[in-house]
Hints:
Blueprint: H1 3-32, E1 40-45, E2 48-53, H2 54-57, H3 63-68, E3 75-76, E4 82-84, H4 91-100, H5 109-122, H6 125-146, E5 151-156, E6 164-165, H7 169-186, E7 192-196, E8 203-209, E9 212-218, E10 220-224, E11 229-233, H8 237-247, E12 277-285, E13 288-295, E14 298-300
Parallel strand pairs: 1-4, 5-7, 6-11, 9-13, 10-14
Antiparallel strand pairs: 1-2, 3-4, 5-8, 8-9, 10-11, 12-13
Helix pairs in contact: 5-6
Amino acid sequence: MSAEASVGSHAADSAQSAVSHSACHSTDEHRNQGLLGSKYVKLNVGGSLHYTTVQTLSKEDSLLRSICNGGTEVTIDSEGWVVLDRCGRHFGLVLNFLRDGSVPLPEEHRELDEVLKEAQYYRVQGLVQHCLSAMQRITLIYSCSLSLQPVVKLQNNRGNNKYSYTSNSDDNLLKNIELFDKLVLRFNGRVLFVKDVLGDEICCWSFYGEGRKIAEVCCTSIVYATEKKQTKVEFPEARIFEETLNILIYENGRGSGPGGLHLLDSRGSGSSLGAGQSEEEGAVGGDRRVRRIHVRRHIMHDERGHGQQTVYKD
Protein backbone atom coordinates (compact mmCIF):
# COMPACT_ATOMS: atom_id res chain seq x y z
CA MET A 1 0.00 0.00 0.00
CA SER A 2 1.31 3.45 -0.91
CA ALA A 3 2.18 6.03 1.73
CA GLU A 4 -0.57 8.31 0.43
CA ALA A 5 -3.21 5.56 0.77
CA SER A 6 -2.02 4.71 4.26
CA VAL A 7 -2.20 8.33 5.36
CA GLY A 8 -5.66 8.71 3.83
CA SER A 9 -6.96 5.59 5.57
CA HIS A 10 -5.55 6.75 8.91
CA ALA A 11 -7.18 10.16 8.49
CA ALA A 12 -10.55 8.57 7.70
CA ASP A 13 -10.33 6.32 10.76
CA SER A 14 -9.44 9.32 12.93
CA ALA A 15 -12.35 11.33 11.59
CA GLN A 16 -14.80 8.44 12.19
CA SER A 17 -13.43 7.95 15.70
CA ALA A 18 -13.84 11.66 16.41
CA VAL A 19 -17.46 11.61 15.19
CA SER A 20 -18.23 8.53 17.30
CA HIS A 21 -16.60 10.09 20.37
CA SER A 22 -18.51 13.31 19.82
CA ALA A 23 -21.83 11.48 19.51
CA CYS A 24 -21.10 9.41 22.62
CA HIS A 25 -20.10 12.52 24.55
CA SER A 26 -23.26 14.27 23.42
CA THR A 27 -25.43 11.34 24.56
CA ASP A 28 -23.68 11.15 27.93
CA GLU A 29 -24.06 14.89 28.37
CA HIS A 30 -27.77 14.60 27.62
CA ARG A 31 -28.17 11.75 30.10
CA ASN A 32 -26.24 13.54 32.84
CA GLN A 33 -28.27 16.71 32.41
CA GLY A 34 -31.34 14.75 33.47
CA LEU A 35 -34.48 16.81 32.98
CA LEU A 36 -32.96 20.25 33.62
CA GLY A 37 -34.86 22.93 31.76
CA SER A 38 -37.97 20.76 31.38
CA LYS A 39 -41.33 21.63 32.92
CA TYR A 40 -43.33 18.52 32.10
CA VAL A 41 -42.20 14.91 32.30
CA LYS A 42 -43.44 11.79 30.55
CA LEU A 43 -42.73 8.66 32.59
CA ASN A 44 -42.94 5.07 31.41
CA VAL A 45 -42.85 2.94 34.55
CA GLY A 46 -42.88 -0.70 33.53
CA GLY A 47 -45.33 0.07 30.72
CA SER A 48 -47.54 2.32 32.87
CA LEU A 49 -47.52 5.83 31.39
CA HIS A 50 -47.68 8.94 33.57
CA TYR A 51 -47.56 12.64 32.69
CA THR A 52 -46.54 15.05 35.44
CA THR A 53 -44.30 18.03 36.20
CA VAL A 54 -40.74 18.42 37.43
CA GLN A 55 -42.15 20.47 40.29
CA THR A 56 -44.22 17.52 41.52
CA LEU A 57 -41.35 15.05 41.23
CA SER A 58 -39.05 17.43 43.11
CA LYS A 59 -41.27 18.00 46.16
CA GLU A 60 -39.30 15.55 48.33
CA ASP A 61 -35.59 14.78 48.47
CA SER A 62 -36.06 11.50 46.65
CA LEU A 63 -34.77 9.47 43.73
CA LEU A 64 -37.31 11.25 41.52
CA ARG A 65 -35.85 14.65 42.42
CA SER A 66 -32.39 13.28 41.71
CA ILE A 67 -33.59 12.17 38.28
CA CYS A 68 -34.95 15.65 37.60
CA ASN A 69 -31.81 17.56 38.60
CA GLY A 70 -29.41 15.24 36.81
CA GLY A 71 -28.04 13.50 39.90
CA THR A 72 -29.26 10.13 38.58
CA GLU A 73 -28.91 9.05 34.95
CA VAL A 74 -32.11 8.28 33.12
CA THR A 75 -32.99 6.43 29.94
CA ILE A 76 -35.14 8.42 27.51
CA ASP A 77 -36.62 6.61 24.52
CA SER A 78 -37.02 8.00 21.01
CA GLU A 79 -40.44 9.50 21.87
CA GLY A 80 -39.18 11.37 24.92
CA TRP A 81 -40.49 9.01 27.61
CA VAL A 82 -38.32 8.59 30.71
CA VAL A 83 -38.12 4.81 31.16
CA LEU A 84 -38.07 3.44 34.72
CA ASP A 85 -37.57 -0.29 35.12
CA ARG A 86 -40.12 -0.79 37.91
CA CYS A 87 -43.63 -2.19 38.19
CA GLY A 88 -46.02 0.69 37.52
CA ARG A 89 -48.96 -0.66 39.51
CA HIS A 90 -48.53 1.70 42.48
CA PHE A 91 -46.61 4.54 40.84
CA GLY A 92 -49.77 6.63 40.50
CA LEU A 93 -50.17 6.41 44.27
CA VAL A 94 -46.58 7.65 44.72
CA LEU A 95 -47.31 10.60 42.42
CA ASN A 96 -50.53 11.47 44.25
CA PHE A 97 -48.68 11.49 47.56
CA LEU A 98 -46.15 13.94 46.13
CA ARG A 99 -48.99 16.10 44.81
CA ASP A 100 -51.17 16.18 47.93
CA GLY A 101 -48.93 15.18 50.84
CA SER A 102 -51.28 12.33 51.77
CA VAL A 103 -53.05 9.52 50.00
CA PRO A 104 -55.50 6.70 50.86
CA LEU A 105 -53.57 3.45 51.27
CA PRO A 106 -54.68 -0.12 50.52
CA GLU A 107 -56.24 -1.92 53.46
CA GLU A 108 -54.88 -5.31 52.44
CA HIS A 109 -51.51 -6.00 54.07
CA ARG A 110 -49.86 -7.48 50.96
CA GLU A 111 -50.75 -4.51 48.76
CA LEU A 112 -49.63 -2.09 51.45
CA ASP A 113 -46.28 -3.89 51.61
CA GLU A 114 -45.94 -3.46 47.83
CA VAL A 115 -46.57 0.30 48.18
CA LEU A 116 -43.99 0.47 50.96
CA LYS A 117 -41.35 -1.19 48.78
CA GLU A 118 -42.01 1.29 45.96
CA ALA A 119 -41.82 4.22 48.40
CA GLN A 120 -38.52 2.90 49.71
CA TYR A 121 -37.13 2.44 46.19
CA TYR A 122 -38.03 6.01 45.19
CA ARG A 123 -36.85 7.23 48.63
CA VAL A 124 -40.09 9.12 49.31
CA GLN A 125 -39.70 9.18 53.10
CA GLY A 126 -43.06 10.79 53.80
CA LEU A 127 -44.87 7.92 52.06
CA VAL A 128 -42.60 5.38 53.78
CA GLN A 129 -43.66 6.67 57.22
CA HIS A 130 -47.30 6.80 56.09
CA CYS A 131 -47.11 3.13 55.06
CA LEU A 132 -45.40 2.05 58.30
CA SER A 133 -48.08 3.74 60.41
CA ALA A 134 -50.83 2.10 58.34
CA MET A 135 -49.14 -1.29 58.76
CA GLN A 136 -49.21 -0.90 62.52
CA ARG A 137 -52.94 -0.15 62.39
CA ILE A 138 -53.63 -3.11 60.09
CA THR A 139 -51.61 -5.41 62.37
CA LEU A 140 -53.64 -4.17 65.33
CA ILE A 141 -56.96 -4.70 63.57
CA TYR A 142 -55.81 -8.11 62.31
CA SER A 143 -54.93 -9.09 65.89
CA CYS A 144 -58.38 -7.96 67.02
CA SER A 145 -59.96 -10.04 64.26
CA LEU A 146 -58.06 -13.17 65.32
CA SER A 147 -58.86 -12.82 69.00
CA LEU A 148 -61.16 -15.46 70.46
CA GLN A 149 -62.29 -12.92 73.04
CA PRO A 150 -64.58 -9.98 72.39
CA VAL A 151 -62.50 -6.87 71.71
CA VAL A 152 -63.02 -3.20 72.54
CA LYS A 153 -60.65 -0.81 70.77
CA LEU A 154 -60.41 2.90 71.44
CA GLN A 155 -58.55 4.95 68.85
CA ASN A 156 -57.65 8.42 70.01
CA ASN A 157 -55.28 11.00 68.56
CA ARG A 158 -55.37 14.45 70.11
CA GLY A 159 -52.43 15.40 67.88
CA ASN A 160 -54.79 15.79 64.91
CA ASN A 161 -54.87 19.60 64.89
CA LYS A 162 -56.38 20.23 61.47
CA TYR A 163 -59.06 22.36 63.14
CA SER A 164 -59.30 24.07 66.50
CA TYR A 165 -61.28 22.31 69.23
CA THR A 166 -64.48 23.41 70.92
CA SER A 167 -64.38 24.32 74.61
CA ASN A 168 -65.70 20.92 75.77
CA SER A 169 -63.78 18.70 73.33
CA ASP A 170 -60.73 18.09 75.51
CA ASP A 171 -62.90 17.27 78.53
CA ASN A 172 -64.98 14.82 76.51
CA LEU A 173 -61.89 13.19 75.05
CA LEU A 174 -60.55 12.63 78.57
CA LYS A 175 -63.93 11.23 79.63
CA ASN A 176 -63.78 8.70 76.78
CA ILE A 177 -60.29 7.64 77.85
CA GLU A 178 -61.37 7.38 81.51
CA LEU A 179 -64.38 5.29 80.49
CA PHE A 180 -62.06 2.97 78.59
CA ASP A 181 -59.97 2.50 81.75
CA LYS A 182 -63.10 1.81 83.81
CA LEU A 183 -64.25 -0.83 81.31
CA VAL A 184 -60.82 -2.44 81.49
CA LEU A 185 -61.20 -2.82 85.25
CA ARG A 186 -64.78 -4.01 85.05
CA PHE A 187 -64.41 -6.62 82.31
CA ASN A 188 -60.79 -7.65 82.83
CA GLY A 189 -60.26 -11.21 81.61
CA ARG A 190 -63.52 -11.31 79.69
CA VAL A 191 -62.81 -8.68 77.02
CA LEU A 192 -59.58 -7.76 75.24
CA PHE A 193 -59.05 -4.00 75.43
CA VAL A 194 -56.80 -2.22 72.93
CA LYS A 195 -55.90 1.47 73.02
CA ASP A 196 -54.62 2.81 69.70
CA VAL A 197 -53.01 6.23 69.40
CA LEU A 198 -52.17 5.99 65.69
CA GLY A 199 -54.23 7.13 62.74
CA ASP A 200 -56.49 9.98 61.71
CA GLU A 201 -59.41 9.30 64.05
CA ILE A 202 -59.50 11.62 67.04
CA CYS A 203 -61.87 9.49 69.10
CA CYS A 204 -63.46 6.31 67.79
CA TRP A 205 -64.59 3.11 69.52
CA SER A 206 -64.63 -0.26 67.70
CA PHE A 207 -66.20 -3.49 68.96
CA TYR A 208 -65.18 -6.95 67.70
CA GLY A 209 -66.73 -10.38 68.21
CA GLU A 210 -66.10 -13.75 66.56
CA GLY A 211 -63.16 -12.28 64.68
CA ARG A 212 -65.11 -9.50 62.99
CA LYS A 213 -66.09 -5.94 63.70
CA ILE A 214 -69.57 -5.74 65.19
CA ALA A 215 -70.01 -2.02 65.77
CA GLU A 216 -68.23 1.31 65.65
CA VAL A 217 -68.99 4.51 67.58
CA CYS A 218 -67.38 7.66 66.19
CA CYS A 219 -67.33 10.45 68.79
CA THR A 220 -65.97 13.21 66.56
CA SER A 221 -67.73 15.73 64.38
CA ILE A 222 -66.87 19.00 62.69
CA VAL A 223 -68.50 22.22 63.88
CA TYR A 224 -68.98 24.85 61.19
CA ALA A 225 -68.69 28.02 63.24
CA THR A 226 -69.11 31.50 61.84
CA GLU A 227 -65.38 32.14 61.45
CA LYS A 228 -63.58 28.78 61.37
CA LYS A 229 -64.14 25.06 61.54
CA GLN A 230 -63.83 23.37 64.92
CA THR A 231 -63.55 19.77 66.05
CA LYS A 232 -66.21 18.60 68.49
CA VAL A 233 -65.69 15.48 70.60
CA GLU A 234 -68.79 13.87 72.11
CA PHE A 235 -69.08 11.50 75.07
CA PRO A 236 -71.86 8.97 74.28
CA GLU A 237 -71.32 7.00 77.50
CA ALA A 238 -74.58 5.04 77.38
CA ARG A 239 -74.00 3.94 73.79
CA ILE A 240 -70.46 2.76 74.54
CA PHE A 241 -71.66 0.73 77.54
CA GLU A 242 -74.41 -0.75 75.38
CA GLU A 243 -72.04 -1.89 72.63
CA THR A 244 -69.62 -3.30 75.23
CA LEU A 245 -72.44 -5.39 76.66
CA ASN A 246 -73.52 -6.42 73.16
CA ILE A 247 -70.18 -8.03 72.37
CA LEU A 248 -70.19 -10.08 75.59
CA ILE A 249 -72.60 -12.42 73.83
CA TYR A 250 -69.63 -13.45 71.67
CA GLU A 251 -67.59 -14.47 74.73
CA ASN A 252 -66.35 -18.07 74.44
CA GLY A 253 -68.08 -18.40 71.07
CA ARG A 254 -71.56 -18.03 72.53
CA GLY A 255 -72.53 -15.71 69.69
CA SER A 256 -72.51 -18.54 67.11
CA GLY A 257 -75.65 -20.04 65.74
CA PRO A 258 -79.26 -18.85 65.77
CA GLY A 259 -79.17 -18.32 69.53
CA GLY A 260 -76.52 -15.61 69.27
CA LEU A 261 -78.73 -12.59 69.94
CA HIS A 262 -77.52 -9.19 71.06
CA LEU A 263 -77.86 -8.51 74.77
CA LEU A 264 -79.03 -5.02 73.91
CA ASP A 265 -80.17 -4.77 70.31
CA SER A 266 -79.45 -1.20 69.26
CA ARG A 267 -82.22 -1.37 66.71
CA GLY A 268 -84.82 -2.76 69.11
CA SER A 269 -87.05 -1.11 71.64
CA GLY A 270 -84.47 -1.39 74.40
CA SER A 271 -82.30 1.47 73.19
CA SER A 272 -82.37 4.80 71.48
CA LEU A 273 -79.74 6.60 69.42
CA GLY A 274 -80.53 9.89 71.07
CA ALA A 275 -80.55 13.38 69.62
CA GLY A 276 -77.96 14.07 67.01
CA GLN A 277 -76.88 10.44 66.62
CA SER A 278 -77.19 8.42 63.44
CA GLU A 279 -76.61 4.80 62.63
CA GLU A 280 -75.28 3.24 59.44
CA GLU A 281 -74.84 -0.34 58.34
CA GLY A 282 -71.92 -1.38 56.15
CA ALA A 283 -71.73 -4.78 54.53
CA VAL A 284 -68.80 -6.86 55.73
CA GLY A 285 -69.37 -10.15 54.01
CA GLY A 286 -72.57 -11.96 53.10
CA ASP A 287 -75.35 -10.68 55.35
CA ARG A 288 -73.02 -9.64 58.17
CA ARG A 289 -73.01 -5.93 58.82
CA VAL A 290 -71.24 -3.43 61.03
CA ARG A 291 -73.28 -0.92 62.99
CA ARG A 292 -71.55 2.43 62.59
CA ILE A 293 -72.81 5.08 64.95
CA HIS A 294 -71.77 8.67 64.27
CA VAL A 295 -72.54 11.29 66.88
CA ARG A 296 -73.67 14.50 65.21
CA ARG A 297 -71.68 14.05 62.03
CA HIS A 298 -72.91 17.24 60.32
CA ILE A 299 -73.36 20.26 62.58
CA MET A 300 -74.07 23.90 61.95
CA HIS A 301 -72.96 25.51 65.18
CA ASP A 302 -72.71 29.12 66.29
CA GLU A 303 -71.10 29.48 69.72
CA ARG A 304 -71.86 33.11 70.41
CA GLY A 305 -72.79 34.67 73.72
CA HIS A 306 -75.27 33.21 76.19
CA GLY A 307 -78.86 33.54 75.15
CA GLN A 308 -78.19 33.47 71.41
CA GLN A 309 -79.44 30.64 69.31
CA THR A 310 -77.40 27.52 68.62
CA VAL A 311 -78.49 25.63 65.49
CA TYR A 312 -77.83 21.93 64.92
CA LYS A 313 -78.41 20.47 61.49
CA ASP A 314 -78.34 16.70 60.99
